[in-house]
Design goal:
Layout lengths: L1 H6 L3 E5 L5 H11 L8 E6 L6 H7 L7 H9 L4 E6 L5 H5 L6 E6 L5 H11 L3 E9 L11 H5 L20
Parallel strand pairs: 1-2, 1-4, 2-3, 4-5
Length: 170
């Protein structure tokens, strides 16, 4: 939330909504500087379609149902758009229709191919002052965003590691 406040963000995109808690925190932080009706939140998750096999393969947590999160977020007064599905499918289709974002949080599926797909889909939504935050920079290169982050062009992107850095134990 401090990054939302510091950047004056009002257009928020989150991949991996889970229980909606982070979404609400991001929205409330944006509302400190903008009227609620000018805050836009776009969230992507599998919601109730997440099954045990997918959860295990993506190292994900079971999210709440989409309608439950929609009802909770609607109370914020912000513009809310939730999209269900494996982000490798709806995100590339929907992203070209979205505005440039002020803040993007990538914390959905944790397979490197999923994270790379998410990044490729949101990269066109990055403007000069957009902050992109990846969660789960693990010391395990078979899951999490470490491989992608380590491979980002430092001439094009300013990369910082915020503390704490996650450690993944098997």
């Amino acid at each position: 939330t401090r990054l939302v406040r510091a950047g004056g963000a009002r257009r928020l995109l989150e991949i991996g909504v889970f229980n909606g808690r982070h979404a609400l925190e991001l929205i409330e932080a944006a509302k400190e500087q903008h009227p609620a009706d000018l805050v836009e939140y776009y969230g992507f998750d599998l919601f109730e379609a997440l099954d045990e096999a997918w959860r295990s393969a993506e190292h994900s947590k079971m999210p709440l149902p989409q309608d439950q999160i929609q009802a909770m977020l609607n109370k914020s007064g912000a513009k809310i758009a939730l999209y269900a599905g494996d982000t490798t499918k709806p995100l590339p289709a929907i992203a070209p229709q979205l505005p440039v974002m002020d803040f993007i949080l990538i914390d959905g599926g944790h397979a490197p191919a999923t994270i790379a797909s998410d990044w490729n889909s949101v990269a066109p939504l990055i403007g000069p002052s957009t902050v992109v935050l990846f969660d789960d920079y693990w010391n395990d290169e078979t899951a999490g965003c470490k491989t992608l982050i380590d491979g980002l062009d430092r001439q094009r992107y300013q990369v910082e590691h915020l503390l704490p850095v996650d450690r993944f134990l098997r």
